[in-house]
Known about the structure:
The chain is an alpha/beta fold. 48% of the residues lie in helices and 14% in strands. It is globular, with a radius of gyration of 18 Å.
Amino acid sequence: MSRRLALITGASSGIGKALAREYAANGWDVALTARREDKLRALAEELEKQFGIDTLIITADLAEPSGPETIVNAVAAAERDIDALVNNAGFGLPGTYTQTTWKQQSDFIQLMFTSYCELVHRVMPGMQERGFGRILNVASVAGLSPGSRGHTLYSAVKSALIKFSQSLHFEGKAYGIHASALCPGFTYSEFHDVNGTRSMVSKMPSFWWLTAEQVAEAGYNAVQRNDPICVPGLWYKFMTGLFQVLPTHMAMWMMDRNQAKFRAAEKPAETAARES
């Protein structure tokens, strides 16, 4: 098989779906994984027809500890190597920390951080042996900004993913492996509809919003260049740069002031939102 294979988690919608299209458009075969098989099959058929590439569908839940092993074993059973890993599966928990159960928070950590780390640990040795690899961890501008009220572990996990990606960037250099953290801001997708925050985030100015296609293109180009951090959009580049130079107390004051505009519309979380 002459084409390289990219494994993309959370590929059924949003940024993951756009990343699958981006890789396929650039001549990669894609292994698509998420929980919703019907959406994966529809996407696979679209990509095969449009770009003439091969696809592999793996239905798995990365909130389950067995998820990463299931996915990697499925690719191995298809006799393919994972040349690019795109960790994208998403999980959102609206509301404050005590408005959610520990099971929800534990599932969040498993999906949003532990599964990312385990997948890298499982595929990176093969990349080292072959002298080629691409690792793209979808983080967020939240990982470069002060923490927020609600979605309590979100910023913490995204910050950890950025540092994780930076370390992988250094470790991979000698083996031809590129590693990048993709840090988008607000992006149009079904995610905000699922977690019940659409009415709140829709109050944001239009220049805060990115398209999934913009984010995917930026992320693909960044990992190809081996940029350790990618922040799509001029507004978000400015905002995250500002947060890096401001004193911490001033940055937190600005964050608190901005969030106060949207708290009136906030409701306690009843269910977790998944984009996987």
